[in-house]
Design brief:
Helices cover 47% and strands 18% of the residues. It contains 14 helices and twelve strands. By secondary structure, it is α/β, with parallel strands linked by helices. Helix 8 packs antiparallel against helix 9. Strand 2, helix 4 and strand 3 form a beta-alpha-beta unit. Strands 2-3-6-1-7 form a five-stranded parallel beta sheet.
């Protein structure tokens, strides 16, 4: 029976990697989805995230055995080389992926948005445009969270932990049983789970688990999905706006004159955020501030955020930023 196959694979993964049984099943259902990728419009990004020695590489080696058309890629290669390695309908296992271009990873997620073109040159033909299709399954070996909440909302993250009692050798697992299961899953079936981007991301795994009649895992995954929805709306989707605007407020107030400055250098905001441990770059900070309605102006080679008191007060109030200095401005 399919549920027995899932249990056997999950137990082998648990023994070798130290993952708990539900995390191991998540890996198996994701692997099944890779075998049904030709029938999928969305393929969630799978992230193996954790510190050194926590089993990330072990999980990657197991997934390499059981996924459809695996390709191992070094995450430290150039953006162009990474892009050219992301073949359609394959499983890209990207090691050391903390520095990869997140926009390329986004394009792997949905068939509808995976088409692009690349400009190539040769001595005989000159410059030509080559169409590329980047849609496929992607596993990332990371130690850090994503910078872009959009990537996070399209991902399923397995957080690895160090296992004190040690792990078993990596087992030899074949793809045939999982491929057979994938061939029988109704990938078009719509299941009753919450709406939204996070639900779309988890749907292929729910479809595979539904076919296998794995009620226990679906209960677990429903809890993980609820957490993902909460994190998207209250965490990654909200907090960057809050702490970036909060930093803009603090830099915009002249402490001596007790009044607002006419502008704040974008690089100053980014540098202050980096001091506090945030790894956002100037482009990301500028984009978020633009989304909040702030105007940007280039002057003397430096990007500035223009300060309008009424707008700053309005945004601060909407985001719940309680700053006494701002409230007490004349």
């Amino acid at each position: 029976m399919p549920i027995q196959i899932i249990a056997a694979y999950a137990n082998a993964i648990t023994s070798a990697s130290g993952l708990d049984i539900n995390q191991a099943k998540t890996s198996v259902y994701w692997a099944i989805a890779t075998h049904g990728i030709n029938k999928l419009e969305i393929m969630p990004i799978l992230v193996s995230e954790g510190g050194h020695g926590t089993g990330k590489s072990t999980l990657m080696k197991i997934l390499r055995q059981i996924c459809n058309a695996p390709i191992v890629i070094d995450g430290k290669v150039s953006k162009a080389e990474l892009r050219d390695s992301l073949q359609p309908n394959t499983t890209a296992l990207i090691e050391e992926a903390d520095g990869v271009d997140e926009r390329l990873i986004l394009m792997r997620y949905a068939r509808q948005t995976a088409s692009t073109t690349v400009k190539r040159g040769s001595a005989s033909k000159g410059w030509t445009r080559e169409p590329l299709n980047l849609f496929g399954a992607t596993v990332l070996h990371r130690r850090e969270p994503f910078k872009d909440p959009a990537v996070d909302s399209r991902s399923i993250t397995i957080r690895t932990v160090y296992k004190k009692q040690g792990v078993s050798p990596i087992p030899a697992l074949g793809v045939s049983p999982l491929s057979s299961i994938a061939a029988n899953v109704d990938w078009s079936k719509t299941l009753v789970i919450p709406d939204g981007r996070a639900a779309d991301t988890w749907m292929p795994l729910f479809q595979a688990a539904y076919y296998c009649n794995d009620t226990a895992w679906m209960v677990y995954a429903s809890g993980e999905l609820i957490k993902a929805i909460a994190n998207l709306s209250e965490g990654q989707g909200y907090e960057p706006n809050q702490y970036i605007v909060s930093k803009l407020v603090s830099l915009a107030i002249d402490p001596n004159l007790k009044q607002l400055k006419p502008r704040v250098a974008l690089k100053d905001i980014t540098n202050e955020l980096k001091k506090e441990g945030h790894s956002l770059n100037s482009w990301q900070v500028g984009r978020i501030l633009k989304d909040q309605g702030f105007q940007k102006k280039l002057s003397g080679g430096t990007d500035y955020i223009l300060i309008d008191k009424a707008h700053l007060l309005d945004v601060a109030k909407r985001l719940g930023i309680d700053d006494d200095a701002l409230k007490n401005l004349p």
